[in-house]
Amino acid sequence: MNVLKISLGLAVATSFLVGCEQMPKSNGSAASTAAAGTPDIVYVNSDSLLANYEYFKEARTRLQGKGQQAEQDLRTQAEAFQKEVERYQQSAQGMTEQQRASTEQRLQQKQQQLQVLQQNKGNELAGEESEEMKKIYDRVEEYLKKLSDEKGYKMVLTYSRGNSAILYSDSTLDITSEVVAALNEAYSSEKDTAKTETAAPKK
């Protein structure tokens, strides 16, 4: 019996496109006070972002661990089922027709249960992966909106080598390092705050 291989599709995140809201040009907005020469459009290298964003790396490790554990559990159950099938095959000749029919029906039901379990586990992991990617997208989008408001950017594009509509761009428009540094700093602060709250004595 083939065991379902749980695969993580986190690489799909490299195709996300973040369009920042256009900043107003009046009423003293950040866009109107941006330094002369600030570009309207900049980009983020999604490959570099995901390779260096600590939240993403931890989420990927966590999901991979769950996927490997699920695969191991399913493999163990599948191997136990296979041994049960082999035992039946070896003893089938000594069984009555009614015993064979009953055993085959039980084995068939067990096989179906394993298939349902595999499908459910795969759906569960896919759901967790989707939720994590939504959190990552929201974090990046929130920061880029804030950054665009400060810098006066009209749009932030994403670039991924071999999977992008952007064939060439001036490297001065690349804000990846700035984005990664800010996201990691914010995530580090979140973890520090969480540790402090956890360690604080309850009143």
TrEMBL record:
Gene3D superfamilies linked to this entry: Skp domain
Keyword Signal on entry: yes
InterPro entries per UniProt: Chaperone_Skp, Skp_dom_sf
Region (Disordered): 89-111
Biased composition (Polar residues): 89-104
A Pfam family: OmpH
Alphabetically ordered keywords of this record: Signal
SMART domains per record: OmpH
UniProt similarity note: Belongs to the Skp family.
Name this polypeptide is given: OmpH family outer membrane protein
Native species: Pontibacter saemangeumensis
